[in-house]
């Protein structure tokens, strides 16, 4: 029988731990059968090129993050004279970043956006009339920026877009806890340092732990769970005293060993870049065919009960059938130890700032692209009907024609599925457009006239008088930020990170934030039912007494049903990173270029991916002149 150790040794990676005892022969047999006696050259090439993309480097080990930081903040410029006529399709962050860099370098750029009434793509802030109190706002899409996403923060800072902490964990509602403008600094493997000043880096505190876990019919605070995880774990049949977050962090450590070394104190350090590229290529070769579920069973040695427990608490359940790598990368970006920022005026202040001075035409739905040696002709039609959940409206007859030297397609591949190319695109690109898996995400936002989550029990008594009733799960703890986890339909709740927007006494709670299969459970409901169900759930957690402050506004966002996004983001299913990945961002014929977070596998579903890919496309367009 093959041991798990044998399985890994196929690629020569030494992994810590001895999970080998529970190895399943099937994986090893498959693996060794596929590897066979000779090397699979195309697969190794794909692994190497995707490893470079994940690490943002090239065949000379250039640090692309550093290069992009300089371009984005204006300390470097695109090469060449800038004489190309360029159409950028899509005014999301990728398209806008690309258009901005090309315009600054002197190119003749025009941006076409399908939406008639807004730019920003999956950065979308619900503001103004959608709320009873028009001073309020809330995010339908991107809402948090990890402090490690230096591309996003440096770009925002250089555009003057204000930021402040986003509290992933709950903190006391004091007026301002920490300034948002800490320095952005990035130390390259070349030894160079990119830094935007001397301000201290902002560090997150441990959090109050007052938010709730509600699973298998029991409700405890996160602090209670961390103090004694066993009762909750046992309710899944997992008899363990390990907190779910720790179990998940340990499981992904095995992927870290490919590119990092563990120090004596338990921390990890990056290997030199040459070894990281090699290690990442081996990781992809070893693990890209593996789903998260298979990884947890075969490599981490988890049983069903543990998968269900940790999966529920750590938001893995809906992603078990997806490729492992995405969840391993998300584990780096989403955990309680990470510090986050939000844009103070709403996330859409970033695309708005990027759009300043650009030539943008809205209500232009791309219908076809004719490409030839000398350039492209693009046809677009007007948008009719609303953008969201398009049950009426449609795309009119193509009415607009644009000739250009090059086009940057900065829209999701799911959207390109509905565009005609003449001649048809190369085989690999078509396969990527046809097959690449797009995940879905769903948010339900509930407006309250008062910020009850900032109240203690005495305030509740004063507010309710004789109508006062205690909360169902212990006394109220005044807090902002953080959120609850539940195995009900509303999987994750997030509270606002700041005490008040524009002095409004109210606020908006993200009452349900769901991914993948969990999101589908909401997608098919009417907006009214989504709202009712999410409010019922919040009421079960915090008591009937919160209902009196809920307004009747039903604001929800299904990214799958959004007419122009057609999904939340690309999350590859097993095997897709290597089989389709190398074809995703490759330019075609010197005239067609591609951008969007789907082009940047390190940062799928993050603004940083849009920025990196938009910058990369701008460089490609500029180099090709
Ligand atoms: N970046 C987004 C967030 O912070 C989405 C993360 C990944 N999405 C997913 N469906 N797995 O919530």
Structure overview:
It is globular and about 75 Å long. Helix 3 packs across helix 10 (273-287), helix 4 packs parallel to helix 6 (150-159) and helix 5 (93-104) runs parallel beside helix 22. It has a domain at 81-122 and 350-436 and 575-623: FAD/NAD(P)-binding domain (3-Layer(bba) Sandwich), CATH 3.50.50. It contains 22 helices and 27 strands. The longest helix is centred in the last third of the chain and has 17 residues, at 607-623. It has 625 residues and is an alpha/beta fold. Helices cover 33% and strands 18% of the residues. Mean pLDDT is 91; it is low at 1-33. Strands 14-2-1-18-27 form a five-stranded parallel beta sheet, covered by helices on one side. It has a four-stranded mixed beta sheet with strand order 10-9-22-23. Arginine binds at residues 144, 319, 330, 334, 439, 441, 515-516, 568-569, 571, 605-606. The site of arginine has 13 residues, from loops.
- What is the CATH homologous superfamily assignment of the domain at 81-122 and 350-436 and 575-623? FAD/NAD(P)-binding domain
- Tally of individual helices: 22
The CATH architecture classification of the domain at 81-122 and 350-436 and 575-623 is 3-Layer(bba) Sandwich
Number of strands: 27
* Helix percentage: 25-40%
Q: What is the CATH topology descriptor of the domain at 81-122 and 350-436 and 575-623?
A: FAD/NAD(P)-binding domain
Radius of gyration: 25 Å
Shape label: globular
Distance between the termini: 57 Å
Share of β-strand residues: 15-25%
Low-confidence stretches: 1-33
Say which molecules are bound, naming each kind only once.
Answer: arginine
Strand adjacency order, main sheet: 14-2-1-18-27
């Amino acid at each position: 029988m093959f041991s798990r150790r044998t399985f890994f040794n196929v690629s020569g990676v030494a992994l810590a731990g001895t999970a080998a005892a529970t190895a399943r022969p099937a994986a090893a047999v498959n693996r060794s059968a596929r590897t066979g006696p000779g090397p699979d050259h195309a697969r190794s090439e794909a692994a190497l090129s995707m490893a470079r993309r994940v690490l943002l480097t090239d065949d000379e080990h250039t640090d692309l993050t550093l290069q992009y930081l300089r371009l984005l903040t204006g300390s470097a410029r695109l090469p060449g004279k800038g004489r190309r006529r360029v159409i950028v399709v899509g005014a999301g962050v990728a398209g806008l970043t690309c258009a901005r860099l090309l315009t600054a370098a002197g190119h003749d750029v025009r941006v076409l956006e399908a939406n008639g009434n807004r730019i920003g793509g999956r950065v979308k802030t619900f503001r103004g009339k959608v709320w009873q109190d028009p001073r309020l706002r809330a995010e339908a899409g991107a809402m948090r920026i990890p402090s490690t996403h230096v591309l996003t923060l440096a770009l925002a800072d250089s555009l003057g877009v204000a930021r402040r902490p986003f509290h992933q964990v709950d903190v006391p509602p004091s007026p301002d806890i920490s300034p948002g403008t800490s320095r952005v600094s990035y130390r390259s493997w070349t030894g160079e340092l990119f830094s935007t000043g001397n301000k201290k880096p902002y560090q997150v505190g441990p959090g109050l732990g007052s938010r709730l876990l509600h699973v298998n019919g029991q409700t405890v605070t996160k602090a209670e769970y961390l103090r004694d995880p066993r009762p909750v774990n046992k309710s899944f049949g997992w008899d363990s005293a390990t907190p779910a977050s720790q179990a998940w962090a340990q499981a992904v450590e095995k992927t870290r060993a490919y590119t990092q070394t563990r120090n004596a104190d338990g921390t990890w350090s990056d290997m030199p870049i040459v070894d990281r590229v090699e290690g990442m290529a081996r990781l992809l070769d070893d693990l890209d065919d593996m789903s998260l579920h298979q990884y947890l069973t075969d490599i981490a040695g988890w049983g069903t009960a543990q998968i269900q427990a940790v999966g529920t608490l750590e938001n893995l359940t809906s992603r078990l059938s997806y490729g492992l790598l995405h969840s391993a990368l998300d584990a780096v970006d989403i955990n309680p130890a990470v510090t986050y920022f939000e844009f103070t005026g709403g996330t859409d202040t970033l695309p708005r700032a990027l759009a300043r001075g650009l030539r943008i035409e809205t209500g232009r739905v791309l219908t076809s692209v004719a490409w030839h040696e000398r350039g492209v002709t693009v046809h677009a039609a007007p948008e009719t009907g609303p953008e969201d959940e398009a049950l009426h409206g449609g795309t009119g007859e193509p009415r607009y024609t644009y000739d250009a030297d090059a086009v940057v397609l900065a829209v999701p591949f799911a959207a390109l599925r509905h565009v005609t190319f003449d001649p048809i695109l190369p085989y690999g690109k078509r396969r990527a457009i046809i097959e690449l898996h797009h995940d879905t995400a769903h948010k339900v936002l509930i407006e309250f006239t008062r910020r009850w989550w900032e109240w203690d029990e005495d305030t509740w008594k004063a507010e309710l008088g004789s109508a006062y009733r205690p909360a169902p799960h212990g006394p109220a703890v005044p807090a902002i930020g953080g959120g609850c986890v539940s195995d009900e339909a509303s999987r994750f709740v997030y509270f606002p990170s700041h005490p008040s927007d524009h002095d409004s006494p109210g606020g908006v709670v993200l009452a349900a934030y769901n991914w993948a299969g969990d999101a589908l459970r909401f997608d098919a409901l009417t907006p009214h039912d989504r709202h009712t169900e999410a409010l019922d759930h919040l009421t079960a957690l915090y008591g009937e007494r919160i209902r009196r402050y809920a307004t009747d506004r039903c604001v929800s966002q299904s990214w799958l049903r959004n007419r122009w996004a057609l999904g939340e983001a690309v999350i590859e299913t097993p095997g897709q990173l290597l089989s389709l990945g190398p074809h995703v961002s490759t330019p075609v014929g010197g005239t067609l270029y591609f951008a969007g977070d789907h082009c940047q596998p390190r940062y799928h579903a993050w603004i940083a991916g849009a920025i990196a890919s938009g910058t990369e496309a701008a460089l490609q367009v500029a180099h090709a002149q």
